[in-house]
Design goal:
It is a single chain. With about 250 residues, the chain is an alpha/beta fold. The protein is built from 8 helices and 10 strands. The protein has one domain: Rossmann fold (3-Layer(aba) Sandwich). The protein has helices at about 15-20, 55-65, 125-140, 140-145, 150-155, 175-185, 195-205, 230-250; strands spanning about 5, 25-30, 30-40, 40-50, 70-80, 90-100, 120, 160-170, 190-195, 210-220. It has a 5-stranded mixed barrel with strand order 5-9-8-6-10. Strand 2 and strand 3 form a beta hairpin. Helix 3 (about 125-140) crosses helix 8. The radius of gyration is 17 Å and the shape is globular. Keywords: Amino-acid biosynthesis, Hydrolase, Methionine biosynthesis. GO terms for molecular function: adenosylhomocysteine nucleosidase activity; methylthioadenosine nucleosidase activity.
Length: about 250
């Protein structure tokens, strides 16, 4: 069974690509490089989708049709929405919804036209395995991988794992007003990003199990400035590599 591993930014998969490089090959399809090989005993296809819902959906469809993947995991960063979340926490989606989907009055707000649903469920086995891998990595490896001074600067005192709804949309959420609006309209959402719900819709339509994992680069109740390129390089990249490595190692070959 082939697993597709997808990210929107190169740093989130760079270390996994380096590990898989010996013996792997690259296929160029639709302006994307699909890296095909084996990783920790598993057949994998790793690809950079780029940013946004259309890019994520196109990449997911290619993984299913061209590479016959049977499961998909999306990894990346997100912004926190719910109170009580912190920089460095991990959110594993149980459902995903498009916060910018609005075909009203023809269809209820957030409902995807002609599908009759506003959210899509992730695969329980995949999300549980990712959550356990994340908990183990945070407890056993994260302190040695993320510099203590940086953790202190970002107030990453005790990062933890949350499972809940993630909202996606083709807009970067960067203001307190936008956060307040989303909290009011989607009170169950823990985090916001730009790709996950598109992956979810395509996987739902094709019957492909999937999971989405996000590292929080900022939190709605955290006013500290975050240098995003630095966070991506020095924090999020380690999270994606370490957690997915444990996830793969824990699965039966």
């Amino acid at each position: 069974m082939t697993l597709g591993i997808v990210a929107a930014l190169h740093e989130e998969i760079a270390d996994l690509l380096a590990e898989m490089a010996p013996g792997a090959h690259v296929e160029h399809v639709g302006m994307r490089d699909y890296h095909v090989g084996r990783l920790h005993g598993h057949d994998c296809v790793i690809v950079l989708a780029r940013i946004g819902k259309v890019a994520a959906a196109a990449t997911t469809a290619a993984l299913i049709h061209r590479f016959d993947v049977r499961e998909i995991v999306f990894t990346g960063v997100a912004g926190g929405l719910a109170h009580g979340l912190h920089v460095g926490d991990v959110v594993i989606a149980d459902t995903l919804t498009q916060h910018d989907m609005d075909a009203s009055p023809l269809f209820p707000r957030y409902e995807v036209p002609l599908l009759g649903r506003a959210s899509f469920d992730t695969e329980r086995i995949l999300r549980d395995a990712l959550a356990q891998a994340a908990r183990d990595w945070l407890a056993e490896e994260m302190p040695a991988r993320i510099d203590a001074a940086l953790r202190s600067e970002l107030r990453m005192a005790a990062p933890c794992v949350h499972i809940g709804q993630i909202a996606s949309g083709d807009r970067f959420i960067s203001s307190a007003n936008e956060v307040t609006r989303l909290r009011g309209s989607l009170p169950q959402a823990l985090a916001v990003e730009m790709e996950g719900a598109a992956v979810a819709q395509v996987c739902h339509e094709y019957g492909i199990p999937f999971a989405v994992m996000r590292t929080l680069s900022d939190a709605a109740d955290d006013m500290a400035h975050v240098d995003f390129p630095r966070f991506l390089r020095d924090v999020a990249s380690h999270y994606s590599h370490g957690i997915l490595r444990r996830f793969l190692a824990s699965r039966r070959v």
